[in-house]
Amino acid sequence: AYFLVLMVFVHLYLGNVLALLLFVHYSNGDESSDPGPQHRAQGPGPAPTLGPLARLEGIKVGHERKVQLVADRDHFIRTLSLKPLLFEIPGFLSDEECRLIIHLAQMKGLQRSQILPTEEYEEAMGTMQVSQLDLFRLLDQNHDGRLQLREVLAQTRLGNGRWMTPENIQEMYSAIKADPDGDGVLSLQEFSKMDLRDFHKYMKGHKAASSELVRNSHHTWLYQGEGAHHVMRAIRQRVLRLTRLSPEIVELSEPLQVVRYGEGGHYHAHVDSGPVYPETICSHTKLIANESVPFETSCRYMTVLFYLNNVTGGGETVFPVADNRTYDEMSLIQDDVDLRDTRRHCDKGNLRVKPRQGTAVFWYNYLPDGQGWVGDVDDYSLHGGCLVTSGTKWIANNWINVDPSRARQALFQQEMARLAQEGGTDSQPEWALDRAYRDARVEL
Ligand SMILES: *[C@@H]1O[C@H](CO)[C@@H](O)[C@H](O)[C@H]1NC(C)=O
Ligand SMILES: *[C@@H]1O[C@H](CO)[C@@H](O)[C@H](O)[C@H]1NC(C)=O
Ligand SMILES: *[C@@H]1O[C@H](CO)[C@@H](O)[C@H](O)[C@H]1NC(C)=O
C-alpha cells in the first residue's frame, strides 16, 4: 500500500518545488507520515567497494570508433553529442532480432504507458499543507511578484500527467476566472483570489485525450535474465560489451522495455532519471533499504535505445539542448514556445535522431562525480519522442541501473548474489511467463 505524502523543503530545494511537494511514499502498513527529512542509516557490515564505473569517451562530435561486439562483424560507434555524452551505432540489432523483439512484445501484450492517476492526486492535493502565499513564492521563479505562463509550465506536476500548453493554461484561467485582465500573467492579488479547489475541480472535470498526455504510447517488459529467449540473452551480452560495465550491474538492471507509438504517438521531453537528493532511494535497490523512504526514483545511469523499425513519418528522438553552450530551464520553456513539447516544437530542438531499424543510440543520464561513480543528473540528457505523423514506431529501451550511493549499490549486488545462491530469486510470475517463450520459433 502506498500513499502520498507532501513535504516542503523550502529552504533546501527551490528547484522543482512541486515535484517535491508531491511524491509517492511507499510504506509497509505504517500509516504515520513523518514530514522531516530522513537521514539514512548505513547498512550493516562492511560492503565491498566497487571499482570505477566505465564511461566511454566522446572525443568530439562525429568521432567514430570501431568495436567488436559480435563474432561475425564490426560495429562503429559515432559520437552524436558531448552534452549529453551520446552515441549512435548503426546495425546494433539485426533485422531478424528487431522483428523477434516486436513479436515477443506482441505475444506478451502491451499496455497503455500512461493513464491519469486522478484520485491519488485529489487525495494529495487535499492534504497539501502549504499556504497560497508560499505556493506563489515557490512558483514565482524570477521573483518578480507575478506568475508568467512559463513559470506554471515548468511545474509539470501541476498537470497531473496531462501535458500543459500555454493555451490550455489560459483556458483554465478563464474557466475558473483567475485572470480577469486576460494577459496570461497572474499577479499576487489575482493568485490570492483564486480558489485552488476550483483549479482541482477543473483538472478533474477535464478528461484528457491521449494526445494531451505527457506520454502517448503502449509498452511491455521483456525479461533478459537466465532462461530468457537466446536472442534476449544475446542482446544483454552485447550491451554488456558495449557499455564495458560490470556483468553484475548490467544483469541486475531493468528488463527490456518495448514501446509502440501509433500514429499520433509522442513522448514529451523528459530525463530518464529522477533528481538525487539525500532522501532519494532507487527503485532497483529499494529491496535492501528497508526503512521508510520519502522519495523513490529510477536510477538509470545509461539509456540504450534501439529502433526496431523504420518509421514512415516523424518519430525522431529529440535532444532539445544537446551541446547547447549553456542550459537554462527558463529559456527552454518560453511563454509561447516550450521546447520540451514534442508534438509541436521538435523542429526547434538542437539534435534529432531519425529512427532507423537496428540502430542503437545510447547516452549517460548522469555526470561523473570525479571519483569514478555517479554524480548529478545531466540536464542536457533531456530527450523526447517526436510526434509520429505516419505509420507506427517501435523502440526498445535497455536502462542500466546504478545507485548514486556506491555503498548501497555494493550492498545490493552482494544481497542479490546471496539470494541467487539460495535459489530464491526466480519466483517472479511475470518473468516465468517470459521463460515460456524461450523456445519461441516464429516465421518472421
Ligand atoms: C532492515 O531492518 C532490520 C530491522 O530494523 C535491520 O536489522 C536490517 O539490518 C535492515 N537491513 C538493511 C539492509 O538495512
Ligand atoms: C530502413 O531504412 C534504411 C535507410 O534509411 C534502409 O537502408 C533499410 O534497408 C531499411 N530497413 C528496412 C527493414 O526496411
Ligand atoms: C542555449 O545556449 C544559448 C547560448 O549560451 C543560451 O542563450 C540559451 O538560453 C540556451 N538554451 C537553453 C534552452 O538553455
Automatic annotation (TrEMBL):
Instruction: Give EC number(s), comma-separated.
Output: 1.14.11.29
* Main EC class the enzyme belongs to: oxidoreductase
Keyword tags: Calcium, Dioxygenase, Endoplasmic reticulum, Glycoprotein, Iron, Membrane, Metal-binding, Oxidoreductase, Repeat, Signal, Signal-anchor, Transmembrane, Transmembrane helix, Vitamin C
One GO cellular component term of this record is: endoplasmic reticulum membrane
InterPro entries this protein is in? Answer: EF-hand-dom_pair, EF_Hand_1_Ca_BS, EF_hand_dom, Oxoglu/Fe-dep_dioxygenase_dom, P4HA-like, Pro_4_hyd_alph, Pro_4_hyd_alph_FE2OG_OXY
Per its UniProt record, what Pfam families does this chain match?
Answer: 2OG-FeII_Oxy_3, EF-hand_7
Compartment list: Endoplasmic reticulum membrane
PROSITE patterns xrefs: EF_HAND_1 (PS00018), FE2OG_OXY (PS51471)
**Thylakoid recorded as keyword:** no
Question: Which region is the signal sequence?
Answer: 1-19
Q: Tell me the GO molecular function terms.
A: calcium ion binding; hypoxia-inducible factor-proline dioxygenase activity; iron ion binding; L-ascorbic acid binding; procollagen-proline 4-dioxygenase activity
Q: Which reaction does it catalyse?
A: L-prolyl-[hypoxia-inducible factor alpha subunit] + 2-oxoglutarate + O2 = trans-4-hydroxy-L-prolyl-[hypoxia-inducible factor alpha subunit] + succinate + CO2
Essential cofactor(s):
L-ascorbate
> Which function does this protein serve?
Catalyzes the post-translational formation of 4-hydroxyproline in hypoxia-inducible factor (HIF) alpha proteins. Hydroxylates HIF1A at 'Pro-402' and 'Pro-564'. May function as a cellular oxygen sensor and, under normoxic conditions, may target HIF through the hydroxylation for proteasomal degradation via the von Hippel-Lindau ubiquitination complex.
Q: How does it assemble?
A: Homodimer.
Name-wise, this protein is Transmembrane prolyl 4-hydroxylase
Question: Species name for this entry?
Answer: Mustela putorius furo (European domestic ferret)
